[in-house]
Specification:
Helices cover 32% and strands 20% of the residues. By secondary structure, the protein is α/β, with parallel strands linked by helices. The chain is elongated, with a radius of gyration of 20 Å.
Length: 380
């Protein structure tokens, strides 16, 4: 039985989340709290496997409670987040502090989508409860020496504290060592010049860890389909751009792909590419409308594979489900190369497992080594 404590100042949300979770016979909501202070007491008392935590609450807000949980009694935490710019900033901060993922608050009130939301919530709770906590997020420990960079924000590390990764998608446990050095491109022209990344649960710090190790003169373009609501992708790209040497931006329809730039698919839209005579353009589109995820890793990777063929390197990072599998299948048929994040360093080993089990992964890589593998993969 997986035990859960639900903390939210909204009586509706406490009831809705509890009801959705307890429809699964493997999940038991052992207590509900009205604010962070009460939530902390309930976590101490019941020692739950998973906590859901609202962000905006009286007396003690969710970020303060999350920090205390991660310092005193670390365990998987799902944030209940509003789909606003402010909500996005707070949620990204929560992921930095060690939260595994978030639940979009408004979506749980939409009756037409309730079955899909319930299923995803329960599956997410079951998946993350299986992971063991490895270490306190680096951002909660004593300050590091000046010059120890590589942070999810400009002031602290993105190596958060959950998942087999030692982080919310973060790398293998590494104690308090400094960041890995920024990589240097090899001499000569790479045989692959476009990287397509698919990622979901546990993704933001995983993506940050990879992109922050790349040099400003990275000789390829990067396109990223991160399962994330529309209000979040802009702030996410802006945060990454502030801590990475390459340029990171939310993708815009019709812009030309440039090396040394990472393009984040806007939430609620798909990311494709269009091969012109002398350039490759970004296509941002709502089609296919029926896709389970928007953005979809399958849509992105298949589009890039069809347009660029063997010039493409596909990367599948942490996430639930199998989005990316069919795209990588097309990629391999076109002569491209595929990397999968290792089970040990995923928050949820779903998306990478799908391509590994299908025999489509050329390499299985720990997240700490993924940037190096991507760099090397451009020349293979």
């Amino acid at each position: 039985m997986i035990t859960v404590v639900v903390v939210d100042d909204s009586a509706f949300m406490r009831k809705a989340l509890s009801s959705m979770l307890e429809k699964d016979p493997e999940i038991s909501v052992v207590a509900v709290g009205r604010d962070g202070e009460e939530g902390l007491e309930l976590v101490r008392k019941h020692n739950p496997d998973v906590v859901t935590l609202d962000i905006e609450m009286p007396r003690m807000d969710g970020l303060t409670a999350l920090r205390r949980i991660m310092m005193e009694m670390p365990r998987p935490v799902l944030m209940v987040s509003s789909l606003t710019t402010e909500g996005a900033e707070s949620t990204l901060k929560a992921l930095e502090l060690g939260a595994v993922d978030f639940i979009p608050k408004q979506l749980s009130k939409v009756s037409l989508d309730i079955v899909r939301i319930e299923d995803e919530l329960r599956e997410k709770v079951k998946e993350i409860s299986r992971r063991k906590f490895l270490r306190t997020p680096r951002s909660l420990r004593a300050p590091r020496p000046v010059g120890d960079g590589g942070a999810f924000t400009s002031s602290s590390s993105g190596a958060t504290g959950y998942g087999g990764a030692g982080g919310t998608g973060g790398g293998a446990p590494s104690g308090g060592e400094g960041p890995r050095p920024v990589l240097t491109p090899r001499a000569g022209r790479p045989v692959r010049d476009i990287v397509a990344i698919g990622v979901s649960t546990g993704g933001p710090p995983a993506v940050q860890k990879v992109l922050s190790q790349l040099p400003a003169d990275f000789p390829a373009s990067i396109l990223i389909a991160q399962h994330m609501p529309a209000a979040f992708t802009g702030p996410f790209a802006k945060r990454l751009d502030g801590v990475c040497r390459i340029t990171v931006k939310e993708a815009e329809n019709g812009e030309r792909l440039r090396p040394g730039t990472a393009y984040i698919a806007p939430g609620g839209k798909h990311l494709r590419v269009d091969q012109k005579i002398s350039m490759v353009e970004v296509v941002v589109t709502p089609e296919p409308a029926e896709a389970l995820y928007k953005p979809s890793a399958n849509v992105l990777i298949e589009s890039v594979a069809q347009a660029m063929g063997r010039r493409t390197l596909g990367v599948i990072l942490t996430g639930m489900g199998s989005d990316g599998l069919e795209g990588v299948r097309v990629l391999k048929q076109k002569g491209g190369r595929a990397l999968a994040q290792s089970d040990a360093t995923c928050v949820v080993y779903g998306m990478p497992k799908a391509i590994v089990d299908a025999g489509l992964a050329d390499e299985i890589i720990d997240i700490d080594d993924m940037a190096s593998a991507i760099m090397a993969g451009l020349y293979k």
